[in-house]
Amino acid sequence: SRASPSPASRTRVYMCIYPSSRRYAVTYAIPLVTARDYGFGQLENSLAFGAISVVRIAAVAAVALATARATDRRLLATLEGLSALLLLALVLPSRATTRAIPMPLFVAACAALLAVDPGPVVLGLYSKLIGAGDAGLYFAVLQSNGAIARAAFGQVVGFAYGRLGPPFLWAACGALLAASWAIILPLWRRLKKCGATDRPEPTTAPET
User: Fold this and answer.
1) Is the pLDDT higher at 5 or at 81?
2) Which pTM was predicted?
3) Most CB atoms within 10 A, among 78, 144, 147, 184?
């Protein structure tokens, strides 16, 4: 039978969840930018987030369908690559959101950036590593990750738009994107054969 993945491999994937949580930075920055550049109030922001939510739901459904054919490695590489391109597509025209761009373009760029978030793939991979017998651990990871990410990125956005300037936030997002690759690359070989129903090959020898 297969041995369980080592604690070190679980830790690496667990750490990968945190860089993928950069979506909170984008989410928290949206109402600040829309209020400043477009005069949005609560109603307008609610409509914008409603449109973004529809795009994200469609993207998650597409990723779920893709897992039947693509490996986790391919999905992670694709989503992280798209994240980098879309981050640049948002930051460069708006000069790190210091200059207003057309409102539909800004909302569309944010919706696309949030849609390609690799979080669902990473959480699915971690679920495979934990196994079906430790559902409590999986939900503990999910809840703790969300709580820490929301608190941390709330402070980052506050500092960026309050004291340090918006470029600080987007530089932090870029650094987290780079950190994702630094964590993924050590797992690259093990993710090669990991598909929708397979678990990553163990780093320890199989039991006899």
Assistant:
1) 81
2) 0.79
3) 184
